[in-house]
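Q: What structure does this chain adopt?
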Amino acid sequence: MTGDKKARRIAVISGKGGVGKTVITANLAAALAASGQRVLVLDADLGLANLDIILGLDPKHTLQDIFRGDCRTEDALIRTAKGFDLLPAGSGLQENTVLSRNLADGLEALLAELDERYDIMLFDAGAGMGDVVLFFATLAHQILVVVTPEPTSLMDAYATIKVLRQLYERDRFLLVVNQANPERPHETGTSVARHLQGVISKFIDESKPPFVNLELIGSLPRDPAIPRSVRNRQLLLDAQPPPASAPFVSTIADSLRTRMT
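A:
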């Protein structure tokens, strides 16, 4: 990871697709911006980007255009209605889906250029544990893992954490549990975190310290308003009436902000 910078870099990863990682990233960005933070969201899924779709935006330029020299960074940045900036990536583009030295250098230079402008950068990484996903995780100060209670989600999250621990020596992870039981969201999150930490302790931490620390920072209950907000291309905080899950997003944002020192 690079040295300390102005912006706090947070990579949002999941291991498995379809767990709500991008929706959570977008809503967290809005909640953090509402608290006065200068926030940039970088769509780090460089081949299948969709943050702009969720936000109802139609970008004229993307991250790929910057790297091609077709536009300036300023031209690609989009200020959203919720007060945070988005740096979109392309969708359906094969270029930059494999981490080359030129791509790595370009990303590091771009982030160095943007560091002074923001308090927080959120990297919405792609699903799985490809080299681009892992690279963004290594660039981050903190790694936020999004899981659901489904066994496949937990297994993929475990596999990603294992690779980051063994190959890149990352040993601290924040955890958000999505699609928790709406009647007992906190209990669901605590149970999932305890189970995942137990698996990590048994199969990763048996070798040598430092041991992996997994910290639950919040749970998001299963809520029909979430897929509806995606279909309507709006954030939960904009939905009317306010959905039951909206306060949980704000709570997670508050938990995240207190851990950025």
